[in-house]
Specification:
The chain has a single domain, classed as Nucleotidyltransferase, domain 5 (2-Layer Sandwich), CATH 3.30.420.10. Helix content is about 40%, strand content about 30%. The protein is built from 2 helices and 4 strands; from the N terminus they run H-E-E-E-H-E. A 4-stranded mixed sheet has the order 3-2-1-4, covered by helices on one side. A hairpin with a 4-residue loop joins strand 1 and strand 2. The radius of gyration is 15 Å and the shape is globular. The two termini are about 25 Å apart. It holds the Pfam family RVT_3. GO terms for molecular function: nucleic acid binding; RNA-DNA hybrid ribonuclease activity. This is RNase H type-1 domain-containing protein.
Amino acid sequence: MADDLAFISRQNAEEYLSISTQEKASASREKKKWCRPSGDQMKINSDGAFHPAAGDGGWGFVIRNAAGEVMRAGAGKIQKLLDAIHAEVAACCEGVRVAAECGMGHAQASASIG
């Protein structure tokens, strides 16, 4: 099941990158602002980092409620990464895992891929 999740996540990330790259070519860079989740949802923002020469990197996430209050956060190192997308997916998965463990049933994930 973990292999299936990783495969699906990687496919989604690659599709996103493909679309995102096309959009970036035509749009100017704008500073992104955090957007609140709707209703009683939580929002999981995650980010991964990849060091190609070493094949390792790190991950981080923050979970906020609709008021913008930080409910949980985490960060760590990852060994044996394949690429930057692998780091981004690992970061997102860690945020989702923590949200599930804390009983946060209504959450939306937002990764900084690209």
